Amino acid sequence: MSAKAGKHLVMYNFGLHVAAYESPAVEGFRLREAANFEAAARAHGFIGRSGYAGEPGMACWGEQVFPRFIEGSGFAIAPSSLSLWADIESLMAFSYSGVHADALKHARHWNLRQSWPPLVLWWADVDVVPQWRDGAKRLEYLHDHGPSAAAFTFKQPYGPDGNSADIDRGRVKEVAAINAESQADLLAHVLALKV
Questions:
Q1: N or C: which end of the chain has fewer CB within 10 A?
Q2: Strands 80-85 and 7-14, how do they pair?
Q3: pTM score, two decimals?
Q4: From first to last of its 195 residues, what are the pLDDT tens digits of the chain?
Q5: HSE on the CB side for 160, CA within 13 Å?
Q6: Sign of the torsion formed by the C-alpha atoms of 31, 175, 129 and 162
Q7: How many CB atoms lie within 10 A of CB 35?
């Protein structure tokens, strides 16, 4: 499901850790975080991601806000990311293989079980830089109303034309193979880390 000319896929995810970010309980996540960001940067189809306010490097795409699911958690901030991709197959290949797949495998150790969707996807015009507030709103919308062209997941994807679509699984495998070559060193690194 490649993007039509003029559209990028936006991905926003949000979760809650089992303890504070600096806690030993979340160390496995912290140890993998830089490798995951680098793996994304090397991934086929990756366009860019928002940085975080107060951190050097990438620009922050608006004020970082969180969906209502953070309320009552005791946390003021929570793990989340906002990124742009060329197509859904590229994002899926990155998400479910290699370095990021290793993080997903161990996520239950670091993250609370969620009653909301872990991520939301939508298409945006190439000249639009998504904002953190857009991701939070769309995740809430997906939770409240289910998937639509405005907010969807890998399970029920929509194309850039707004119609329900299918993911090209063969292309996902091809992209994962491309990524495996460019990320072999990162994967070896994360596989040696403690959980």
A1: C
A2: antiparallel
A3: 0.95
A4: 555 569 999 999 999 999 999 999 999 999 999 999 999 999 999 999 999 998 998 999 999 999 999 999 999 999 999 999 999 999 999 999 999 999 999 999 999 999 999 999 999 999 999 999 999 999 999 999 999 999 999 999 999 999 999 999 999 999 999 999 999 999 999 999 999
A5: 17
A6: negative
A7: 21
